């Protein structure tokens, strides 16, 4: 019995000595075993993300427009005669009743300004024969401007009188305006790309800033609809999957396919009723490699 105990004791001491001498081999083997899954795991896909926010949803229609005076008066020659040279120039102020042109007929016929305003343009300046009905000049009040925008019919259906408008791109700071009229009749227009379009004239009232005149090109942002306290998701994150709207959330470093219910859509942002909440991280422009459960970075 004693021999057996001594044998076991000797074997145990020998084994411990063996393990002690080769402990780094065992540690290395354990580390390799632990790291093996990481080597065979699919790498995380790089993605672009954005955070879901809560705020005011605005459906904005963007369109170019042209300023014009609200009341433009074109003065015509009242008779056949000889026009004396017009000494006034575009930009000159005039008062109602001022003589702005003289036409020699059987006597000198006076052409007077119908309003107090500014000469917008001169159609005929030089002296010489003039026929009755020939345009001589345009007069208008440049303190009373409006903007005419030609809006696509599929967008114009959402525009209503009273909608707020931001006027930009005229060379100064943005100006506030209001939709006054949406004309009831559309017209056909060919775009710069040769596409036939149906458009509607939208007229915007505003207080013109100093330096703005008639015929200025401006850029309009018409707020057709507003909804406060909305869950806002970038439209680049949402896509169609059959009849459903879907996006991918990032949860624990993995993409999670998430159906959502869309309330309203505009060009860059979507108002979501259900599916995500404020603070969720969503994937923008998800490609074919993005699937439910895929690791992302």
Report a brief summary of the structure.
This protein is mainly β. Helix content is 14%, strand content 48%.
Features:
mainly beta, conserved putative lor/sdh protein from methanococcus maripaludis s2 fold, Elongation Factor Tu (Ef-tu), domain 3, 4 domains, four-stranded antiparallel sheet, 21 strands, transmembrane helix, YknX-like_C, Single_hybrid_motif
Description:
The protein has about 300 residues and is mainly beta. It has 4 domains: about 1-40; about 50-55 and about 230-285, conserved putative lor/sdh protein from methanococcus maripaludis s2 fold (Beta Barrel); about 60-70 and about 145-225, Elongation Factor Tu (Ef-tu), domain 3 (Beta Barrel); about 70-140, RNA polymerase II/Efflux pump adaptor protein, barrel-sandwich hybrid domain (OB fold (Dihydrolipoamide Acetyltransferase, E2P)). The chain contains 3 helices and 21 strands. The strands form 4 sheets. The chain has a 6-stranded antiparallel beta barrel with strand order 2-11-15-13-12-16. It has a 4-stranded antiparallel beta sheet with strand order 3-10-8-5, with no helix packed on it. Strands 7-6-4-9 form a 4-stranded antiparallel beta sheet, with no helix packed on it. A hairpin with a 6-residue loop joins β12 (about 165-170) and β13 (about 175-180). The longest helix is centred in the first third of the chain and has 20 residues, at about 1-20. The model has no long low-confidence stretch (mean pLDDT about 85).
